[in-house]
Amino acid sequence: MKTFGKPFSLLLGIAGLALIATVALSAAQASKGGATPPAKGGGGPIAVRKTTPPLPAMGFAPVRPMNIVTATYDFAAQHPEILSYIPCYCGCGADGHKANEACFVAKRDAKGNVLEWDTHGFGCTICVDVAREAMQMYSSGADVVAIRAAIEKKWTPGNAAGKTPTPFPPKK
User: Fold this and answer.
1) In DSSP terms, which residues pair with 114 in a beta bridge?
2) pLDDT band at 37 (very low <50, low <70, confident <90, very high)
3) Residue 79 resides in a domain
4) pLDDT of residue 14
5) How many domains does the structure of the chain reveal?
């Protein structure tokens, strides 16, 4: 039987430490509420911040850096008036998702507070990227109609088959 020796053991040890550091960082962020400051722009500052449970610890690294994933989950929690009108393009409509918001939020109470997260967003680059782009446009002052139009223009070509059946925002 052939052994790999010290270099392999060292590499395995480093990978283990990286995993422990990732879990510790996730736990620390969750204990702080996992929240990032609410985005300002578009509809203005949030009057009452919606409450959220801590983000769950996944058994794998998220598809984007944790600060980006945390920010997109927080944006989804705080801005259903945006992401509930933004389609997702990853094919998650087959799982019952109707909009990009559903990739992050599974359940809300009557006041809009998040009761349960959908963990799909942790493992899907399309979900995170669509939400992040919507968040950036909102932060720069775009309204939901402009955000939807920009997302559709960018993501529909080549991804139309995976588009969720998302309702259009109400007319003003």
Assistant:
1) 108
2) very low
3) yes
4) 64
5) 1
Position 168 in a domain:
no
Backbone φ, ψ for residue 48 (5° rounding): -125, 120
> How many residues comprise the chain?
172
Round to whole Å and give the CA distance between 1 and 11: 20
User: Does residue 169 lie in a domain region?
Assistant: no
Residue 15: inside a domain: yes
Cβ atoms 86, 100 nearer than 8 A: yes
What is the rounded distance in angstroms from the CA atom of residue 86 to the CA atom of residue 82? Answer: 7
Burial of 30 (0-12, 13-18, 19+ CB in 10 A): middle
pTM of the model: 0.73
C-alpha to C-alpha distance for 50 and 35, rounded to whole angstroms: 11
Domain that holds residue 124: 5-162
Residue carrying the six token digits 């918001």: 101
| Residue 114: exposure state from Cβ atoms within 10 A (0-12, 13-18, ≥19) | buried
Q: Which residue has the tokens 């925002």?
A: 169
